[in-house]
Predict the 3D structure of the following.
Amino acid sequence: MFHLTRKIDYGLVLLLELAEGNQEMGKATSPLSLRTLSKKRYLSFLFLQKVAMDLRKHGLIEAKRGKIGGYYLSKKPSEITLKEIFEALEGPISVMHCLGMTAKENLVHEVGCHSRKALNMLNEDMKQSMNRITLSDFITTTPQQRWAPRKGRPLRNPDSPAVKPLTKPRHVAAHH
């Protein structure tokens, strides 16, 4: 099963918060504090710091120090691709371990990578698709648009129990 890692989840939450506050020329009117975001979204502050470091190292976000410091996008949301985000946080995109190996490493594992040709086609298609999707494709202006129906799916209420948040607080007990 293909799934997003916790690191990707945190990265997308951070980037979307920055993008939604960065509509003018890709620059923040006021930088976002990681402490504020971690409290607002019930995210681990320490893990969020690690994610921010990786995004900064790869040039997707920048930091401003000081009393009114925080993070902001280093470029417009329309210039940040999903592929860049994934690679900044998880490394090269590869649907199978052997596809990310060098030719020399792959000689040793040739037997385990018998589907290399077909999987490489899938891998390349996935990278191309991820390169076409930008952060701005995730941005919506209202909660109604965020939960709008797509291709025959009914409109969902974000407060509905059937809709799970990206992250949920660990310290809050479930209500029955």
User: Anything to note?
Assistant: The helical segments are 6-20, 34-41, 45-57, 82-90, 103-108, 116-132, 143-146. The first strand starts at residue 61 and ends at 64. Residues 116-132 form the longest helix (17 residues).
